[in-house]
Specification:
- The chain is an alpha/beta fold.
- The protein is about 30% helix and about 10% strand.
- The chain has 18 helices and 17 strands.
- The chain has helices at about 5-10, 45-50, 50-55, 90-105, 120-130, 190-205, 230-235, 250-265, 280-285, 300, 305-325, 340, 375-390, 420-425, 460-465, 465-470, 475-490, 530-535; strands spanning about 25, 60-65, 105-110, 140-145, 165-170, 175, 210-215, 270-275, 330, 395-400, 500, 505-510, 515-520, 525-530, 540-545, 550-555, 555-565.
- The strands form four sheets. It has a seven-stranded parallel beta sheet. The chain has a five-stranded antiparallel beta sheet with strand order 11-12-13-17-15. A three-stranded antiparallel beta sheet has the order 4-6-5, with no helix packed on it.
- Helix 6 (about 190-205) runs parallel beside helix 8 (about 250-265).
- The protein binds 1-deoxynojirimycin (NOJ).
- 1-deoxynojirimycin binds near residues 73 and 76.
Length: about 575
């Protein structure tokens, strides 16, 4: 660890800004590769796939939680922030994995879950044992109930996963949990909580971690001054920095302190906020005084639609410039239906009540899979991905999207794991379908995921999507990702773009400062490139998401045009 670097030194150092236009590949460790055959992916499994990641051409990996956990929420219920779940390996395995990734030039980002711990965390166990009024309970949010004998919860608030947000403990008090009851919320007014997370951030930074992804970064601080509002009253309080539970301005006091710590390393550690907040509030999280970067989920929530994509890109580049950060782009992650599937489903009816962030999920129960047009979804997904990879800023990819994987819709009830499924009585199908272990080989136990089975059932159709099936095929989705990530190094230049008008509502075309162009045809009719650039020899089509000819862009396809040398 070194002294805090002056801001101008950090900015001048390319090693300090590696993240600005990086391709970050999200690994969901339990479903990536299993070395020991227990059906759960692990860190030694990741080690065996470092060559694969290097060949894919990613700049960094982000690991979802690998900490000790009862898996009440896929590892986002952390029982110990400074260790590795024994089923996933040891700290030595972690060090070996980081060393191997670094040796191939790949940075490592880990997930920090500060809003809540697991109920198995030693602090929570201590709080249960210590009883009401104790210092141990002050680390969490305990309250007396209402009604006769306090048998009713303090408020009628609902958890994000459905069901009540309060749970009663044996001595009659209630604790608050924004997510599952196994995830008690921490009290961020408590100095010990603040101190402990600094220790955790230092622990991983000292182990060579390059950056952090901050889970629900907009929910840590709360104003629980009594009387507490009802659920209905809560909905009427504006989310403007003073809401009792969400996106409070005072959360940035925490991140300012974290930023000091990050900047005390050389190069400074990076952070990206998972903050589901209104676009105009994103720059607060992305500013260099706060976390430095924030996820922008707008493309992930949008339909495959040219005007929406254009508006989102324009707005988010402006927001990024306002914050001094670079924009981030995401189409898939471990919380949403895979984009190949979303784009292959008919649009949700106007009266659908499905949460937008789970786009298309309303269709994925029962026999609705029949409505999925797999081929169309995959074609549009490739086009959207090439569009995204052509943009200025950093691109976050989710494991398996490079294989064009679809959501697995038909997981039997008894094999489901997501608390959303259980807490809504099955009304929300949950996120297991995008977390099914990856297929590496076309046959064999668990399609090469590990020597034995897989912790979620893999469908037979995984065979044709396996890495092994795609590697030798120049036309495969995997080959397209590899070529795109390779070419992207030439394509990325200044963090701007200029739109080129196409005369079509369903075609977007932009030019980067170094002359590279990206053209996406969202429509069903081919788009003629016209005589301008190509015919005059000013450019060459170097990549297409779906074949096509030099003179036109086929339906639902993106091409990249490199400037003539
Ligand atoms: C966001 C994570 O991405 C999600 O998987 C998790 O369930 C919640 N935060 C709670 O930690």
């Amino acid at each position: 660890m070194t002294e805090v670097l002056p801001a101008e030194t950090r900015e001048a150092d390319p090693a300090a800004v590696w993240w600005r236009q990086a391709v970050v590949y999200q690994i969901y460790p339990r479903s990536f590769a299993d070395a020991n055959g227990d059906g759960l992916g692990d860190l030694p499994g990741i080690l065996t796939r470092v060559d694969y990641l290097a060949e894919l051409g990613v700049d960094a990996v982000w690991l979802s939680p690998f900490y000790p956990s009862a898996l009440a929420d896929g590892g986002y219920d952390v029982a110990d922030y400074r260790d590795v779940d024994p089923r996933l390996g040891t700290l030595d395995d972690f060090d070996a994995m980081v060393a191997a990734l670094h040796a191939r030039g790949i940075k490592v980002v880990v997930d920090i879950v500060p809003n809540h711990t697991s109920d198995l965390h030693e602090w929570f166990q201590e709080a249960l044992a210590a009883g009401r009024g104790s210092a141990a309970r002050e680390r969490y949010i305990f309250r007396e109930g209402t009604g006769p004998d306090g048998a009713e919860p303090p408020t009628d608030w609902l958890s994000v996963f459905g069901g009540p947000a309060w749970h009663r403990v044996e001595d009659g008090q209630w604790y608050f949990h924004n997510f599952a009851k196994e995830q008690p919320d921490l009290n961020w007014d408590n100095p010990e909580v603040r101190q402990d997370f600094l220790t955790t951030l230092r622990f991983w930074s000292d182990r060579g971690v390059d950056g952090f992804r901050i889970d629900v970064a907009h929910m840590l601080t709360k104003d629980l001054t009594e009387p507490l509002p009802s659920r209905e009253e809560l909905t009427r309080i504006p989310i403007d920095g003073n809401h009792p539970l969400i996106d409070r301005d005072d959360v940035h006091e925490i991140y300012a302190e974290w930023r000091q710590l990050f900047n005390s390393y050389d190069p400074p550690r990076t952070a990206v906020a998972e903050a589901w907040v209104a676009s105009d509030r994103v720059p607060r999280y992305a500013s260099p005084e706060s976390l430095g970067q924030s996820f922008n989920f707008d493309l992930l929530e949008a339909d495959f639609d040219a005007p929406s994509f254009r508006r989102i890109v324009t707005d988010n580049l402006a927001l990024a410039a306002q914050s001094g950060s670079s924009s981030t782009w995401v189409l898939s992650n471990h919380d949403v239906v895979r984009h190949a599937t979303r784009y292959g489903l008919p649009p949700a009816p106007a009266d659908s009540t499905a949460p937008a962030r789970h786009g298309g999920e309303w269709l994925l129960g029962g026999g609705d899979e029949a409505l999925l047009d797999r081929e169309r979804g995959a074609r549009r997904a490739r086009a959207a991905t090439l569009f995204l990879l052509g943009l200025p800023g950093s691109a976050y990819l989710y494991q398996g999207e490079e294989l064009g994987l679809h959501e697995v819709a038909d997981i039997p009830e008894e094999e489901r794991q997501d608390p959303t499924f259980f807490r809504t009585g099955g009304a929300e199908i949950g996120r297991d379908g995008c977390r099914v272990p990856l297929p590496w080989t076309a046959s064999g136990p668990s399609f090469g995921f590990g020597p034995e089975g897989a912790h979620l059932p893999q469908p037979g159709w995984f065979a044709q999507y396996a890495v092994e099936s795609q590697e030798a095929d120049a036309a495969s989705t995997l080959s397209l990702y590899r070529r795109a990530l390779g070419l992207r190094h030439d394509l990325q230049s200044g963090e701007q773009l200029d739109w080129i008008e196409t005369g079509r509502d369903d075609v977007l075309r932009f030019r980067r400062p170094n002359g590279w162009q990206v053209v996406t045809n969202f429509g069903t009719e081919p788009y003629e490139l016209g005589p301008s650039e190509l015919a005059s020899g000013d450019g060459e089509v170097v990549l297409s998401s779906d074949g096509g000819t030099a003179g036109s862009v086929p339906a639902e396809t993106t091409i990249w045009i490199a400037p003539a040398r």
